């Protein structure tokens, strides 16, 4: 483990010297991932991993009129809405295609079983002496 740490430290020194950062300066280097902080927690609660992907702060209008008329959507809100509508239409067509494929598959299975039954019925049967 110590050898691995020494190797990483050596590589870090090489990287810092190639970027012209003197080794004596106090620079903070982050070794953790640059993922969204708290994304696992928000996702476990059923929220978006990123606060700016969906939710009331993103989806609802920025202001309302006192007389009750609807406010205009911002350009990004309109784009998000059209993307979601397109995605919903694609999902519905894919679901319809999947249901149709299930029906066709079920019909094919029924035809195969009928053909097997007909084959069994059409086979020669032994004579029965009475």
TrEMBL record:
Recorded GO CC terms: mitochondrial large ribosomal subunit
PANTHER family named among the record's database cross-references = 39S RIBOSOMAL PROTEIN L52, MITOCHONDRIAL, LARGE RIBOSOMAL SUBUNIT PROTEIN ML52
Identify the keywords attached in UniProt to this record, alphabetized: Coiled coil, Mitochondrion, Ribonucleoprotein, Ribosomal protein, Transit peptide
Keyword hit for Coiled coil: yes
Record-level GO BP terms:
mitochondrial translation
The answer to keyword Ribosomal protein applying to this record is: yes
Q: Which InterPro entries match?
A: Ribosomal_mL52 (IPR034596)
Q: Which GO terms describe its molecular function?
A: structural constituent of ribosome
Protein name (Swiss-Prot/TrEMBL): Large ribosomal subunit protein mL52
Q: Which organism is it from?
A: Octopus sinensis (East Asian common octopus)
Subcellular location per UniProt equals:
Mitochondrion
Chief location of this protein?
mitochondrion
Task: Point out the coiled-coil segments of this chain.
Answer: 95-122
Pfam families per record: MRPL52
Family label: Belongs to the mitochondrion-specific ribosomal protein mL52 family.
């Amino acid at each position: 483990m110590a050898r691995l740490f020494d190797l990483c430290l050596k590589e870090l020194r090489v990287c810092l010297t190639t970027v012209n950062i003197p080794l004596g300066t106090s620079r903070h280097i982050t070794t953790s991932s640059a993922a969204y902080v708290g994304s696992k927690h928000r996702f476990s609660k059923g929220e978006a991993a990123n606060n700016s992907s969906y939710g009331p702060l993103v989806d609802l209008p920025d202001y309302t009129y006192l007389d009750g008329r609807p406010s205009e959507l911002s350009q990004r809100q309109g784009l998000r809405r059209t993307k979601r509508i397109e995605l919903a239409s694609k999902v519905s067509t894919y679901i319809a295609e999947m249901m149709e494929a299930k029906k066709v598959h079920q019909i094919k299975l029924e035809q195969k079983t009928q053909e097997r039954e007909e084959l069994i019925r059409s086979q020669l049967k032994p004579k029965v002496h009475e």
